[in-house]
Amino acid sequence: MNNTTTRNKVWTFCVIYLGYMLLFADRTVFNLALAGIGKDFNMSPAALGAAGSAFFLGYTLMQIPGGYLTDRFGARAVVISTLILWSLLTGFTGLAWSFSALVIIRFLFGVAEGPYPAAALKQVAQNHPKKKRAQLTALLMSSNYAGAAIAPFIIVQVIAASGWRSAFYYLGAFGIILVGLYALSDRKVATDTKKSTTHKINWRELDARVWLFVVLGLALNVITKGLETWMPIYFLTSQHLELKKLAWLVPLPTIAGGIAAAISGYLMVHLFKKKEVLMLITACVLTLLFMFGLFRSQSLFWIVSFQILTYFAKSLAFTGIFDFASQVLHDDSYGSAIGIINFGGQLGGFIGPLLIGWIVQLTGSYSAAFLGLVISAVIAVITSFCIKRDQ
């Protein structure tokens, strides 16, 4: 491989990484804006939960079709289309004129963004040998946490200065710039694959581990997305923190999650080689223990500490699913299989915010909501014990 090809592959990876960062930064921005949105539209906690879940409903529904479209038309075409639609709908989020309009826009937002994970992960799989995929997959997925961690430092200032709508205008503009950067990537390196003619997904013969990955990802993401959506409001209303202080508090768990995601591939390849399932089990058990600690905590220090630890352990487990999958799934149907696996994770993202909003409105207690997340962690542990290394 010559130096030019190597540089082009690095460039392509970096742009895809930035795209993933941007997509997840939007979710953090929306969570930070929820308090202002609720005030402007006079929304109840359950309605706020529905607004947060609308995105994940559209995003979840597009995981499997998005994987198919990636295998059919190629990763490059899907990434470009996704980023363009995402940027436009980001701007429309800032233009929302009613609660109903906001929910519809966020749902369409999710539909537009849905194909990105399968396309991004498939492009990494195509551009790099199998022995490097687990670590590069982990590094790419750490962008999710990087975007969520960096966004508050910038966006909180924007919201405080000019309101929540302006934040989405800035994000949309940056998305358009990113489309241009990605379009400059070398077409040969980007590996614009054509439709697959072999190894199509056979639902009846699908690797049983894929379905376990779906359940595991669902249970883990109920925890993460539930906390991501509601912890800013919890800190503002129950802990009575000022908005500007959230700029320093909210990123801490996501930074921990990003570190865990970045190192998960290394851990799986070097410390848990041929024992990948043991890594998943260990991370799930730790997630349960730390989530229980969060549920039992009363002081702000321990709430934040256990939230950070929960994110770290959960990120090891969730990213580990994709690290493991990158080593055992077939190349030609990789996009479709990733779409199926990510469907479970994003279904959890849809359920989590809605579940917490419903429990808080029903009981008036965040403690009861945290208990629901502990139960989700129990499901993750049970599922992890059912996974086999060899199929």
From TrEMBL:
Any one Pfam family match given in the protein's UniProt record, by short name: MFS_1
InterPro entries in the cross-refs: MFS (IPR011701), MFS_dom (IPR020846), MFS_Na/Anion_cotransporter (IPR050382), MFS_trans_sf (IPR036259)
Any GO molecular function: transmembrane transporter activity
TM regions (residue ranges): 12-37, 43-61, 73-89, 95-116, 136-161, 167-185, 206-227, 247-269, 276-295, 301-325, 337-360, 366-387
Keyword Transport attached: yes
Start and end residues of each Major facilitator superfamily (MFS) profile domain: 12-391
Stored SUPFAM superfamilies: MFS general substrate transporter (SSF103473)
Membrane topology type: Multi-pass membrane protein
Protein name as annotated: MFS transporter
Organism: Ligilactobacillus murinus
